């Protein structure tokens, strides 16, 4: 696999002085913050990978952490900083609760500093052996307190990893060292406006003008991207990636020894990936292939692509049948098809200019559609669009082919009312539906499986793209916090198990971890989630028995500090950490651009 990493600032540090851009062995690299772990977990010798481990060309630095620069005395910097302050003070209209940082960043949404690997000695119950590995979750964590408006979806990506091995646990929290993070860390303050909060109304236009001035005067380089990598993670082709759909993936290395997190760099897969990639790629558990897309505000508005099992990106498939830009956060795949959702949200620049709203807004007059494209299509000539009025999908759960009936089955929550998706998430309701697309007749039917407010659903990963029976959903009361987790029977169309976290306790997306030692049944395994007690001010990882009638808690790991509410995560088994994850290196043919 040939990858390409692009970065502008040092992201890896060494204990010794070495020539810049040298190739380093794994044992000479330390975490991205330069701190040693407080205590290491039991280790074992790594076994050889089936992939030929490439080498990494790494920029080195004598310092342990990018040092914040002194306040620049250059006229362009001072002018832009002054303009930013003036915009926030005089041009920004009164902030709504969804944009007021004092509201958005309150309680367990407030950001934290990094945490090196820290032992978690307080464990109730026994952690099952199949959880030996790492549970890692992404989420927004602004490194600087916002000087103006701030939305929940903004904030630098921070990864929270719980490494578990032989009954012991260690927590580590690290920023994703994006270009934007490094730039603003060095400056000591925000420089680039965030997409969901900074580009609104006249003030947003003024901020965009200041950003253009910063680019023209060399203060920032737009070619390096301004993504936050704060939404999710994906593990494919032997690499772990932190994802945010507005930018390229950032490659991450997770230490098998103590769970420490290192940002390798921004990845364009040898110049084959541009602009960005969905934060929800899908990996087929049988073939190892990974499927993804990107959407932009210029033609082609949607582009579909895939990676082979080794992580090599294949050619783009532009979707030319779309006539206007859309907002597409997630999609679904089956063994035969890829499904895309054209929902009642899209780009509305006039809403920003004339009403001071956000460029992404709802369109109640639009008829929602599902696009169906053959999974291995090389162009969009076989794309078919099916109207599904009022069905707004933000997150899909699973999809599969019904070959006997010539149909596709899709499982996903329907978000209503969609106009509150960005501004008032506590007012939205997500009811899970089963959608049947008859490819012969062209008809679409819908069946509601639950009227509970359920989102952030997962299935046994071995059943992705295949017919499955159970989904594990976060219970939103209200969104975006989850008051519990629900096991939904997709055949019976009802909830068969519920675990409420208790008064003042909230979690996020649940994660299903199959029991590899006893995997005869689809639901043989455990559901895990970070849960925060807002009364006690402490966080835990809960491990729940997925087959029990009440999702019984079999183990609870008290964390050394709270973990803020966040977005999506995944579990990586210990075997994958040692065998499938490439060492902290990449081929010498790859390049780092400055």
TrEMBL record:
One of its GO terms (biological process) is carotene catabolic process. GO terms for cellular component: chloroplast stroma. Keywords: Dioxygenase, Iron, Metal-binding, Oxidoreductase. Fe cation binds at residues 280, 329, 395, 568. This is Carotenoid cleavage dioxygenase 4. Residues 33-51, 60-70 have a biased composition (Polar residues). It comes from Acorus calamus. One of its GO terms (molecular function) is metal ion binding. Binds 1 Fe(2+) ion per subunit. Belongs to the carotenoid oxygenase family. Its cofactor is Fe(2+). It holds the Pfam family RPE65. Residues 33-70 are annotated as: Disordered.
């Amino acid at each position: 696999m040939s990858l390409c990493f692009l970065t502008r600032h040092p992201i890896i540090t060494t204990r010794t002085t070495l020539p810049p851009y040298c190739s380093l062995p794994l044992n000479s690299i330390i975490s991205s913050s330069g701190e040693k772990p407080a205590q290491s977990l039991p280790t074992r010798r790594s076994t050889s990978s089936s992939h030929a481990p490439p080498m990494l060309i790494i920029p080195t630095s004598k310092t342990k952490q990018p040092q914040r620069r002194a306040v620049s005395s250059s006229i362009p910097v001072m002018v832009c900083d002054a303009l930013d302050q003036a915009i926030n003070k005089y041009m920004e209209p009164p902030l709504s609760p969804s944009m007021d940082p004092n509201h958005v960043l309150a309680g367990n949404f407030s950001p934290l500093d990094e945490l090196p690997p820290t032992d978690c000695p307080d464990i109730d119950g026994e952690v099952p052996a199949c959880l030996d590995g790492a549970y890692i979750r992404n989420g927004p964590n602004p490194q600087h307190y916002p000087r103006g408006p701030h939305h929940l979806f903004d904030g630098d990506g921070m990864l929270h990893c719980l490494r578990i091995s032989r009954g012991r646990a260690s927590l580590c929290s690290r920023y994703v060292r994006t270009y934007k993070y490094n730039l603003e860390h060095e400056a000591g303050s925000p420089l680039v406006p965030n997409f969901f909060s900074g580009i609104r109304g006249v003030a947003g236009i003024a901020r965009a003008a200041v950003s253009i001035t910063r680019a023209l005067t060399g203060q920032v380089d737009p070619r390096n991207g301004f993504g936050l990598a704060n939404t999710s993670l994906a593990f494919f082709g032997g690499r772990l990636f932190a994802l945010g759909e507005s930018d390229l993936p950032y490659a991450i290395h997770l230490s098998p020894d103590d769970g420490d997190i290192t940002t390798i760099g921004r990845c364009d897969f040898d110049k084959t990936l541009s602009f960005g990639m969905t934060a929800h790629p899908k990996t087929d558990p049988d073939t190892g292939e990974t499927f993804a897309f990107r959407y932009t505000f210029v033609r082609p508005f949607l582009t579909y692509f895939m990676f082979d099992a080794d992580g090599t990106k294949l050619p783009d498939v532009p979707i030319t049948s779309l006539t206007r830009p859309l907002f597409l956060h997630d999609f679904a795949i089956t063994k035969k098809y890829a499904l895309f959702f054209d929902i009642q949200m899209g780009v509305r620049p006039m809403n920003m200019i004339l009403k001071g709203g956000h460029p992404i807004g709802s369109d109640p007059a639009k008829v929602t559609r599902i696009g169906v494209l053959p999974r291995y299509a090389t162009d969009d000539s076989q794309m078919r669009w099916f109207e599904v009025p009022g069905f707004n999908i933000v997150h899909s759960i699973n999809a599969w082919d019904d070959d006997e009936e010539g149909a596709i089955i899709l499982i996903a929550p329907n978000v209503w009312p969609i106009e509150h998706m960005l501004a008032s998430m506590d007012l939205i309701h997500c009811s899970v539906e089963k959608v049947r697309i008859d490819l012969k007749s062209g008809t679409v039917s819908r069946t509601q499986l639950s009227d509970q407010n359920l989102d952030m659903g997962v299935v046994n990963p071995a059943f992705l793209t295949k017919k499955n029976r159970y989904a594990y959903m976060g219970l939103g009361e209200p969104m975006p916090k989850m008051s519990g987790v629900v096991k939904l029977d997709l055949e019976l169309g009802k909830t068969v198990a519920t675990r409420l976290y208790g008064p003042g306790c909230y979690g996020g997306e649940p994660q299903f971890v199959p029991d590899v030692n006893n995997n005869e049944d689809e639901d043989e395994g455990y559901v895990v989630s970070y849960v925060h007690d807002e009364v006690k001010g402490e966080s835990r990882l809960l491990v729940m028995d997925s087959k029990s009638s009440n999702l019984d808690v079999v183990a609870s790991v008290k964390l050394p500090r709270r973990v803020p509410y966040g977005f999506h995560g995944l579990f990586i088994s210990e075997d994958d950490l040692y065998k499938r994850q490439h060492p902290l290196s990449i081929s010498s043919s790859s390049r780092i651009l400055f």
